[in-house]
Specification:
The complex is a heterodimer of chains A (283) and B (278).
Chain A (H helix, E strand, L loop, with lengths): L14 H9 L4 E13 L4 E13 L3 E5 L6 H9 L6 E6 L2 E2 L7 E4 L11 H5 L1 H5 L4 H14 L15 H14 L4 E5 L7 H18 L2 E6 L2 H7 L2 E6 L4 E7 L15 H15 L7
Parallel strand pairs in A: 3-8, 3-9, 6-7, 7-8
Antiparallel strand pairs in A: 1-2, 1-4, 4-5, 9-10
Chain B lengths: L10 H7 L8 H29 L8 H13 L2 H33 L1 H16 L6 H8 L3 H25 L3 H9 L4 H12 L1 H25 L4 H11 L3 H29 L2 H4 L2
Helix pairs in contact in B: 3-12, 4-5, 4-7, 4-10, 4-11, 6-7, 7-10, 8-9, 10-11, 10-12, 11-12
The chains are: A alpha/beta (283), B mainly alpha (278).
Amino acid sequence: MTYEVQTDTRIGDLTTMDQVNAAQDGTPILQVKEMCKTFFTKERTVVALDHVDLSVHTGEFISLVGPSGCGKTTLLRIIDGLEQADAGTRSLDGVPLSGISQDMAYVFQDINLLPWRSVLENAALGLEARGMNKKDRSERAMEVLEMVGLASFATSPPYTLSGGMQQRVGVARALAVRPKVLLMDEPFGQLDNFTREALQVEIAQLWAKLGMTIVFVTHDVDEAIFLSDRIALFQPAPGRITEIVDVDLPRPRDEYDVRAHPRALELRSHIMSHLRAGKGLPQ
Amino acid sequence: MSMKVIEVQVGEDLVSTMPRPPKPAISQRGWTIVAAPLAVIAIISALWELFASFVSPVLIPSPQRVASDFGALFKAGTAQGALSISIRELYIGLFIGLVAGILLGMLIGRYSLAEGILGPFINSANATPLNVLIPLLILWVGISSKARILFIILITFFPVLLNTAGGLRNVSKGYVEVGKTMGLSERQLVRKVILPASVPYILAGVRIGVALAVIGMIVGEMEVSNVGLGYLLNFYGEGFQTGRLLALVFLAALIGVINVTIVRLIQRRFFRWTIVGR
């Protein structure tokens, strides 16, 4: 057994970072302005979003991070059109949106594959909505299943798949419609650590390969640092974005131990102290 | 002192020589499934036999007596005659009751206006012992096959309707959101998400309806006829022919079991995900 010792020169080599930046021209693909949302329950009133602005650049991977209940998921649902905002506007490529946009796709935390459909039919759901014929549909669905490594499970019913595999199908279902923006709501939150890390690497690779724009909600700071170009920090009650952090770490990040990278450590401690300083959080 | 040489096998050989875990004994389990009920039947028969030897055969005839009466009913053609009438009415009534119940249930589960208008009446009807309507049915269509079929329809209809409506209303919010965000239109959402998602509830309603339909068949014939299984049950009861009476009881039970089994097989064949999935 030989052990290969890697001396990775990429760490700290910021030229790769410049390439990444060059790929993104910095024009916003998605813009959210003055977004407000308040939830009223019998017990209390929660201001989930208080005049939130967000610009997402074309091709970037941006994460929304904050403690639970800070409004990050609400913002994602409003961006998609699943939730109605009280006030505020959203636009994609400069065009104002209302209702559910056909140019965005959503990946849910509780995957919700339809159990009466095969894996392939699940992946093809959005294509059926778009009126694609059966042959093209299965071709396209097969293509995305191959991307997530599940082509051989196409005819299986979803309940025969593990949690990680099910979420791969959830991702494939969203990718099948070739969205301009992929919205992911804590997609790996229900998975065990090993599966989660594997899927983080896969989604980073898919993002790099497909050149998509991804808006990713998580409360896992390490996950956000590993995946993102930028991280929007949320604070709760009222829900606001209080800072946006640039993650200036070289890519691809699965080729070195991001967590041990000095810059990542700095970012992590900065983010944690910022979040702790927010209301209602333990110091 | 001798040294033992331990041979170490590598690779596939190692795997192939490793003791395999015993295969799960499916056949053994299958055997238990057959054997256990048989044992229970044997015990019950023995107890029955014992009781019968102490009591008048008018109250409890022996198992052999019931078995021979069962055979006699078929040999004489009495059972076939009654069955041909009963079964026909059962399936006509059941079919109409199920279809009407499922269709109206979909309407009510889908449109809150329909539910607002019809809901109170349906809930009241479902809570009413429907055999109170038998005299009315007789007034309308006479002591006839029609009256009995109508009664079977009525008794099946309401539980199927309520289950179906409940199913449509209780479809997981997650499935609906998936459909919406993937861009399904309102119609597609109903056809591709809401209806399939309510299949487990609809099937539960069908199971109840199928069981109630057999009750409706027997009750209808007891009250409204001089034919069919229900009528024969009355006839042998009044005539103290307890052996034949019990033979018919088993026959009615058999019809119920067959119907429930058919539903189960349909569920296994066409809606397998409702059993193993979710």
